[in-house]
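Lecture 7 notes: from sequence to structure.
We start with the chain below.
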Amino acid sequence: MPMSKSPLRNVRACWLGRAGYQEVWDLQAELVAAVREGAEPDTLLLLEHPHVFTMGKAASPDHVLWDEAERTRRTVDVIWSDRGGEATYHGPGQLVGYPILDLARLGLTIPGYVDALERSLIDYLAGVGIQSEAGSAGLTGVWSEGKKVAAIGIKLTRSIVSHGFALNLTTNLEYFRGIVPCGHADKEATSVEALRGRRIDTKEAAQAYARHFSEVFGVEVTWVAADRVLAARPVA
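Predicted structure tokens for the same chain:
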């Protein structure tokens, strides 16, 4: 059931394709400022990243298990981020979603927002035949058969939320061995492909996921081209 009644707030959705983590991190910061000032609407960025380990505020250097030589061999960068959480992996075959939303205008608290984000992912996974659930206390994200299929890490700037989720579709799970994922050495990652043998294109998944995001958050999602979002960036 939608979380709010009509008229629905509009959220523009944008497929960025494959984009570097630092580039999209910078874009998020610009959008956060623009949304806060009312210059840009709430925005859902959907994309996939090249191989990268990102380290949240609770991460520590020993959460990276591969040395520099191994990371170079596997072409994986390490970037320290301002999101919450610990270490995670992003890479090809993984749907990444960064909602830039004004939670105050949506009437959401942080716990309510995280719960809704988890439910939108659970609903998407149900649509591809996978039963999943939110993690227990201390284990954010979405889990299936005891393994994490989607990670969540967010940042709040006043009432504007950024960063978001990473859903493993056809992700090479070997890369999770290079870190202590989300600070839990005993917890394994999984993917849609590992769970059901289905190979789903990341862009196709983005389009399907947006419908569940719309339903759970009670918003109307309008797709726009990437250049519409990127054109609003300030000129250096």
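Points to note: The longest strand covers residues 147-157. The first helix runs from residue 21 to 37.
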